[in-house]
């Protein structure tokens, strides 16, 4: 039985009167790719941000790697080994590629000491970034920015990578490249929780999946089970 | 030609002071979105710090250093005590808090020290002028320009080369993502305030060289000018703050030098009109703030 890395129990997120996530239960085991599906506004990003400690929980608990992380600060979560590549890439446009990567390793003194070595590893993984290491991130193409955003998250050597909509706004051939990278990451032992609107792509690569609608987990199972249970209806119903 | 060069140096010296003050405002604004109206009081605190350390018999250069450090410490404490509790409140709340801090300090200076100016002697060594060719150049002006240049260079190196500096730039572009990467938000904000305090302190020293005294209102006018410089340069842009500071210095010195005597009273009105004209064509300022792609 593989070790449970991330466990989300009865988590609720509220923004004022708005209920973004309600009673969410989710688990990710080491070595898995788990996908979290749902329409726009279903609460996917809120749930990820809550796991990272970026938004406060209105209820429930989050455990990571055997320890409770809900209520701790984001930098502690990063140090424990979980990072998030945010939706829309959000690279620092005015910083060089190399400096963007350095920020990815800012969470602890040990990571900071390993910055140079980790950066070399990232350049091996993403040769395009190596070519452009001195360039400002804002001048990169969308696909390159997505690679940089993923590499920046990997700088902290995470056990679990949360990927929020990595295909958003990218051309189809670039999306294929990004999904190849995701598969390569799993081969390197990184566990991945993948949030996607593009359900077909995500189910092709994932071991298991959850479907979020209206802030609640409404379906879970293997890709086969999810496809069989009428995923489209959930999507349409959420609109 | 000589007169022009002389006025050029004056503009550099005055503009440099505005640039340092503007940078202090911009550093805090870029990470926190707060216009700190208590920035002028940091400058005033430098003045009183120098006044009292001199009174205690501390040698002059050390007293200047103490004045700058007091401003830096005060800035960090200001953030810790007044701004941190309202950090997640609306920008208006933070703005009003900074007004309150400014007013409280101002009243404390008046009641605990004096409403009247306290003289701070300027050492003989830096009064006077050196001759370059047939030109007489004030030592204070040269010193101001040199100190400004060193400060700007030091800050640039810090922001470009140190991880904390890079983290500050990252936080200025996208605070949430910087936090997401594990950048310590409190650390970045405290550093921003410390830098703004040091810059206000250095500007305070330069201002004191010109005025020779400190009173509770000392920081008000220069920081008002610096605020104008920051808006002119582009709110939130550090480069913009420096450019805006120098432009405002050039405008003010040129008007003082070349306006007919009868018009001198309208100097500030004319310089503000020029600023408004620039903003009319460049409403985001000269260097608009880079927004991250969302």
From TrEMBL, chain A:
GO molecular function, one term: ATP hydrolysis activity
Cross-referenced Pfam families: ABC_tran
SMART domains assigned: AAA
Domain ABC transporter: 3-239
UniProt keyword list: Amino-acid transport, ATP-binding, Nucleotide-binding, Transport
Gene Ontology terms: biological process: L-amino acid transport
Extent of the signal sequence: none
PANTHER family documented for this protein: HIGH-AFFINITY BRANCHED-CHAIN AMINO ACID TRANSPORT ATP-BINDING PROTEIN LIVF
Family stated for the protein in its record: Belongs to the ABC transporter superfamily.
Protein name according to UniProt: Amino acid/amide ABC transporter ATP-binding protein 2 (HAAT family)
Protein species of origin: Dongia mobilis
Automatic annotation (TrEMBL), chain B:
Family according to the record: Belongs to the binding-protein-dependent transport system permease family. LivHM subfamily.
Organism of origin: Dongia mobilis
A matching Pfam family: BPD_transp_2
Record's protein name: Amino acid/amide ABC transporter membrane protein 1 (HAAT family)
Annotated GO MF terms: L-isoleucine transmembrane transporter activity; L-leucine transmembrane transporter activity; L-phenylalanine transmembrane transporter activity; L-valine transmembrane transporter activity
Taxonomic classification: Bacteria, Pseudomonadati, Pseudomonadota, Alphaproteobacteria, Rhodospirillales
Annotated Gene Ontology cellular component terms: plasma membrane
Stored InterPro entries: ABC_transp_permease (IPR001851), BCAA_transport_permease (IPR052157)
Main location: membrane
Keyword Transferase: no
Keyword Signal: no
Top-level taxon of origin: Bacteria
Keyword terms, alphabetized: Amino-acid transport, Cell inner membrane, Cell membrane, Membrane, Transmembrane, Transmembrane helix, Transport
Transmembrane feature ranges: 12-38, 50-77, 89-109, 139-159, 180-207, 227-251, 263-282
Residues spanning the signal sequence: none
GO terms (BP aspect): D-alanine transmembrane transport; L-alanine transport; L-isoleucine import across plasma membrane
Membrane topology value: Multi-pass membrane protein
